[in-house]
């Protein structure tokens, strides 16, 4: 909808129905794609060049990354934790709200949006480990 865009990533080679989250971590952009047959997290450099994709077997939304672990909501009641280097899921955690709209990790806190309460909250990250 913008009249002018500085850079547009070429996603034409990817098979997806929706983009369900993105995060910048360690000089890369990670994007969570959801599809009819497959879900995955794709890594790009900041110039829009495709680096790699990691299969992600869940249909999650929102994305934040800390210390190589990708956190996302699984139907807004469960917080999934996925280790990027080993490509494996860690134990799930109870989501801090059942009405989640977004998450972000900063300074060892998980910040979250509760759309129903129209509030932003946070919990210490160590409570999830």
Structural account:
- The chain is 0% helix and 53% strand.
- The protein is mainly β and 129 residues long.
- Strand 5 and strand 6 form a beta hairpin.
- The relative contact order is 0.13.
- The model has no long low-confidence stretch (mean pLDDT 90).
How many helices? The count is 0
* Head-to-tail CA distance between termini: 40 Å
Tell me, briefly, the overall form. globular
Q: Describe the biggest sheet?
A: 5 strands, antiparallel
The helix content, as a percent range, equals: under 10%
Q: Tell me the number of strands.
A: 12
Which structural class best describes the helix and strand composition?
mainly beta
Radius of gyration: 15 Å
Give the topology.
Blueprint: E1 18-25, E2 28-34, E3 39-44, E4 50-55, E5 61-66, E6 69-74, E7 78-83, E8 88-89, E9 93-94, E10 100-106, E11 109-114, E12 119-124
In short, what is this structure?
This protein is an all-beta fold and 129 residues long. The chain contains no helices and 12 strands.
How would you describe this structure in keywords?
129 residues, mainly beta, 5-stranded antiparallel β-sheet, 4-stranded antiparallel β-sheet
């Amino acid at each position: 909808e913008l009249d002018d865009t500085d850079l547009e990533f070429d996603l034409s080679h990817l098979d997806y129905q929706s983009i369900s989250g993105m995060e910048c971590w360690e000089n890369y952009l990670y994007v969570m794609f959801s599809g009819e047959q497959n879900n995955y997290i794709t890594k790009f450099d900041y110039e829009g060049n495709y680096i790699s994709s990691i299969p992600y077997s869940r249909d999650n939304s929102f994305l934040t990354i800390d210390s190589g672990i990708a956190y996302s909501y699984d139907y807004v009641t469960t917080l999934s934790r996925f280790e990027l280097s080993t490509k494996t899921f860690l134990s799930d955690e109870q989501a801090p709200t059942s009405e989640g709209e977004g998450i972000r990790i900063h300074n060892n806190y998980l910040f979250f949006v509760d759309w129903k309460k129209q509030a932003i909250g946070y919990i210490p990250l160590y409570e999830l480990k």
